[in-house]
Amino acid sequence: MAERPRLAFDPIRRAAELWRERWGGGSKAVAMASATSIMRVQQLLLGELDAVVGLHGLSFARYEALVLLAFSSSGRLPMSKVGERLMVHPTSATNIVQRLEAQGLVERSPNPTDGRGTLAAITPSGRAVMEAATADLVRGEFGLGMLTADEHEQLFALLRKIRVACHDFPPDRPGT
Q1: CATH entry 3.60.21.10 includes domain 55-142
Q2: How far apart (Å, rounded) are the C-alpha atoms in residues 42 and 143?
Q3: N or C: which end of the chain has fewer CB within 10 A?
Q4: Model pTM?
């Protein structure tokens, strides 16, 4: 991660101490500290990843849209699928794709199977920018180079457990 001014102490740990003093200890103080830590790490990672892809004229949200389109079998998706798979509001998906279109990285066209819908398609220059940004993100280990492979597996499993419990997607079924 990029160097930034460091705080003199861990404010989340201090908040947990104050929480224990005011409302008692136990799992509730730890849960508050965990949730707050997740939110802070999200801020730190997004700043780091935005800086990396920013060198390519992207935000991380626009980078994710390019990757999504590149991963699709035809290089294009209906806008409704773009929003659904990026897990953002349709208005946000439209904004992201409009910005990419203005950069010449995506083209929009009417959806021939849905008269009201629009398709978003990655352009060759969009693929090139996405590949270059991906190489930089991989080189920087997506801002998580301080973790071992085992720690990555543990972190993913823990965060996935939360996502399943929050009904982000259905839990795995045996055999799938």
Answers
A1: no
A2: 11
A3: C
A4: 0.85
